C-alpha cells in the first residue's frame, strides 16, 4: 500500500467535500447515485453500477490490480444495461471508479521503497483530490448486467463511473 502524506495547507472547502461524500454514501445505500460538484452545478458524477470484490478495506487491495489476477464482478444498474451491447467484443476494458473510501486531501505521496515524496498527480495513489480510479481489466464474461473481470483493484461496493473498451491501436503509444 502507498504511504500518503497530507499537505496541510491544501485549500479545500470541507463542507463541499463532506456533502459530496455524504451523498456518495447515501447513493450507495439508496441505489440512486449522484455526486454533485457544488462549485460547478452542471458537473456531477452518476455511477452506473458497483463492484463486488474480495477487497473489503484499502489494506486488502493490491497496489496495482493488473499485478494481482483476482476476479471481481461489476453489477450495472438496470437503467444502463443497454449500454453493455457489443462490449463482449473486447477482451480488455478500462474501468473508471470512484474510490469513495480514499482520502481526498493529499497532494504528496511517499512511494514504498522509493524514498522521497512525489506530488499525487505523479503517482497512481487512490488518495487524491478526486479519487477516480482507472484500471485496465480483462473481461471474462457478461451475464445480463453482471461483468466478471480480472485485475480490478477496487474495494467491495466501489461505485463504477464508466467502462471503456481498450483499443491497442489508440491506447498504446507507438
Automatic annotation (TrEMBL):
UniProt record similarity statement: Belongs to the tRNA methyltransferase O family.
Protein name as catalogued: tRNA (N6-threonylcarbamoyladenosine(37)-N6)-methyltransferase TrmO
UniProt keyword list: S-adenosyl-L-methionine
Top-rank taxon, per record: Archaea
UniProt key word S-adenosyl-L-methionine: yes
NCBIfam families named in the record: tRNA_TsaA
Ranges for domain TsaA-like: 45-174
Gene: tsaA
Chain ranges passing through the membrane: none
InterPro entries: TrmO-like_N, UPF0066_cons_site, YaeB-like, YaeB-like_sf, YaeB_N_sf
Tagged with keyword Nucleotide-binding: no
Amino acid at each position: 500500500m502507498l504511504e500518503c502524506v497530507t499537505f496541510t495547507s491544501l485549500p479545500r472547502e470541507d463542507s463541499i467535500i463532506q456533502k459530496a461524500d455524504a451523498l456518495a454514501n447515501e447513493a450507495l445505500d439508496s441505489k440512486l447515485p449522484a455526486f454533485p460538484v457544488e462549485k460547478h452545478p452542471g458537473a456531477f458524477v452518476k455511477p452506473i453500477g458497483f463492484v463486488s470484490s474480495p477487497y473489503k478495506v484499502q489494506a486488502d487491495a493490491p497496489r496495482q490490480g493488473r499485478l494481482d489476477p483476482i476476479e471481481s464482478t461489476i453489477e450495472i444498474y438496470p437503467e444502463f444495461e443497454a449500454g453493455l451491447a457489443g462490449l463482449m467484443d473486447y477482451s480488455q476494458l478500462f474501468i473508471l471508479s470512484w474510490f469513495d473510501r480514499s482520502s481526498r486531501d493529499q497532494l504528496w505521496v511517499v512511494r514504498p521503497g522509493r524514498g522521497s515524496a512525489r506530488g499525487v498527480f505523479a503517482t497512481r495513489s487512490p488518495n487524491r483530490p478526486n479519487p477516480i480510479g482507472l484500471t485496465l481489466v480483462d473481461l471474462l464474461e457478461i451475464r445480463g448486467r453482471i461483468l466478471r473481470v480480472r485485475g480490478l483493484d477496487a474495494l467491495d461496493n466501489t461505485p463504477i463511473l464508466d467502462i471503456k473498451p481498450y483499443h491497442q491501436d489508440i491506447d498504446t503509444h507507438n
